[in-house]
Prior knowledge:
- Chain A has seven helices and 30 strands.
- By secondary structure, chain A is α/β, with parallel strands linked by helices.
- In chain A, the strands form seven sheets. In chain A, strands 3-2-1-7-21-20 form a six-stranded mixed β-sheet, covered by helices on one side. Chain A has a six-stranded antiparallel β-sheet with strand order 24-25-28-27-26-29.
- Chain A starts with 9 loop residues before the first strand and ends in a 24-residue tail after the last strand.
- In chain B, 39% of the residues are buried.
- Chain B has a single domain, classed as Alpha-Beta Plaits (2-Layer Sandwich), CATH 3.30.70.20.
- Chain B starts with a strand and ends in an 8-residue tail after the last strand.
- Helices cover 22% and strands 23% of the residues of chain B.
- By secondary structure, chain B is α+β, with helices and mostly antiparallel strands.
- The longest helix of chain B has 10 residues, at 43-52.
- In chain B, the strands form two sheets. In chain B, strands 1-4 form a two-stranded antiparallel sheet. A two-stranded antiparallel sheet of chain B has the order 2-3.
- The interface between A and B is large, with 41 and 31 residues.
Amino acid sequence: xxxxxxxxxxxxxxxxxxxxxxxxxxxxxxxxxxxxxxxxxxxxxxxxxxxxxxxxxxxxxxxxxxxxxxxxxxxxxxxxxxxxxxxxxxxxxxxxxxxxxxxxxxxxxxxxxxxxxxxxxxxxxxxxxxxxxxxxxxxxxxxxxxxxxxxxxxxxxxxxxxxxxxxxxxxxxxxxxxxxxxxxxxxxxxxxxxxxxxxxxxxxxxxxxxxxxxxxxxxxxxxxxxxxxxxxxxxxxxxxxxxxxxxxxxxxxxxxxxxxxxxxxxxxxxxxxxxxxxxxxxxxxxxxxxxxxxxxxxxxxxxxxxxxxxxxxxxxxxxxxxxxxxxxxxxxxxxxxxxxxxxxxxxxxxxxxxxxxxxxxxxxxxxxxxxxxxxxxxxxxxxxxxxxxxxxxxxxxxxxxxxxxxxxxxxxxxxxxxxxxxxxxxxxxxxxxxxxxxxxxxxxxxxxxxxxxxxxxxxxxxx
Amino acid sequence: xxxxxxxxxxxxxxxxxxxxxxxxxxxxxxxxxxxxxxxxxxxxxxxxxxxxxxxxxxxxxxxxxxxxx
Lengths: 463, 69
């Protein structure tokens, strides 16, 4: 095998965090050939997490969240242009403006978009918004600045909860409606879901769980309120639809790749699978659109909507695009994410939904400072900290080494931890918000559901 | 100049808050908030904050994207 860097033409579709970091890594790895980045949004790469935090609070403007570059990438940027398809035989990307971009290797990093309100006529009402792009955030800030009498947030996942937090901090009345039993329950399970509900209510959120919005009402094209499944109705000036994300894979429909609603399947080296489960040699995937097998979670395919995963996976994909054989690396990073809401810093390592039990290992719900540790069949699979970020690294090590669950008593508390309880991870189909960590089974293109071992008591009925 | 903070890595040591209080602030006990676009008169402070971060979570640089020359 030669030590010469690979040479050819590279196209990256998706010019956000993953696309950018991949481009930089390609150049770091010595790639000197032609490089093109294609992005649907007109803006240069920007950082999305501040959209639901600093930007909504008015601390940063939506158009001032651009990402810094780590190095020059010497690329051709095609921004504001959507990719419409791939010709896998001729190896060309078809762009919406008619251009055909030939490639020798391709990276797909098209990410996700906000799941729209299912009724298109109601979704078009003036005052019904989503939050995913900087444009969305600018629109929402404008509405919040206008001082609405009430904001309705539909879906209590991380985005919905952060929006509610920002509204309360701005002194706005806010109602959060969630079909599942609690906020954040899809990502963190029952115990921390109940905690999140308590926190939201303590901050003055009108939180309604186990309820769905049956219709959004309007007058003269303006949103005026909503009707709920429990028969009640309410007036509001703004509705934010926070029903999770949709993976941008439709444009791959004719490509022969294993792409579907749960993402584009790839191997641990970020090489895309075809629909037959055959790994490709020249099409790579990274970021929110990817599904990849992870050895720590029984090689189930994971789909992660995380900033950290976009960076780590992009780096591995880029390196593997320009190296061959045994020098290729696996993407084995343990999933991590953070959220800040209602004055709390919530951080997670591992996959909390890959669990049957959870224990508050340090701190307590009452103090609002704690470490929750998740276990699956007697080993630690995740930890979530609330205002205890410094412990995350420790638990990451325990996850990586498959340490036994429940964890042994730490010296930090001086008291024995509580007994483990069922982690109560609901079926994602029963939630308004989509989980940002999805375990999507073992096969490239078929739906599998994780079945927890033994009876798991649940607050919600199973179908 | 733009900045981004890897908030997975951040452990709220808050060195950046002391060194560049107009760019970084703690929101609550350990949530770091930052201004992604750094005003000209704060750039030197932001660079120092990035250098001082005990977990090296802060990246500063020119805006990524077209027009890098």
